[in-house]
Amino acid sequence: MAWANGTARAISAATKANPAVFTSNAHGLANGDIVWLANVSGTGNWATGLNGRWYTVASAATNTFQLRNSVGNIVSTSGYSGSYPGSGTVTRCLEAACQVRVTSNNHGFANNDWVWVQGVSELQRNERFVGVANDLDLQRHEEPRHHRLHGRVSHR
């Protein structure tokens, strides 16, 4: 099971501006890369507005980059309270929207089958997914009803 392409890189700074400019020394990102932000601490919008989302990299330079959200709008932090807390990571994703890829021969699932994945260390919490390809690429999706099978992929 995988979703990341490489390791998480520290975000050492972010401007309180429109557009926001993020600093991560020698990050290696390119325009159009899909990335995931995590571990931004602090109070207010810095943590709640940035964490746990995928973005598209824009205006990448050697040590800085900007981000576009999932609908293509440039990320602005101009309305955030306080200053950037100096923590956080950016990780390049393998798939669009940071989908999780599970490789399993003869898994028996069809496109758009609902599955519940539990007890897998690569996931931060138990999540529900919808299968979207024969390789069982999975998209994060919230759905209140589910079936669980501990440590395995089960199908609805």
Secondary-structure map with pairings?
Layout lengths: L8 E2 L2 E2 L7 E2 L10 E5 L6 H6 L2 E6 L5 E5 L20 E4 L7 E2 L12 E4 L9 E5 L5 E5 L11 E3 L1
Antiparallel strand pairs: 1-7, 2-3, 3-6, 4-5, 4-7, 5-6, 8-11, 9-10, 9-12, 10-11
- Profile the largest sheet: 7 strands, antiparallel
Number of folding domains? 2
Tell me the helix content.
under 10%
β content, as a range?
Answer: 25-35%
CATH class label of the largest domain:
Mainly Beta
Strand order of the largest sheet: 1-7-4-5-6-3-2
* Count of alpha/pi helices: 1
Radius of gyration: 17 Å
> How many angstroms does the end-to-end distance come to?
20 Å
Order of helices and strands: EEEEHEEEEEEEE
What is the 3D shape? elongated
Query: Which structural category fits the helices and strands?
Result: mainly beta
Count of distinct strands? 12
CATH topology of the largest domain: Elongation Factor Tu (Ef-tu), domain 3
Structure commentary:
A 7-stranded antiparallel sheet has the order 1-7-4-5-6-3-2, with no helix packed on it. The chain has 1 helix and 12 strands. The protein has one helix at residues 45-50; strands spanning 9-10, 13-14, 22-23, 34-38, 53-58, 64-68, 89-92, 100-101, 114-117, 127-131, 137-141, 153-155. Residues 124-156 have low confidence and may be disordered. The chain is mainly beta and 156 residues long. InterPro entries: E1_FCCH_sf.
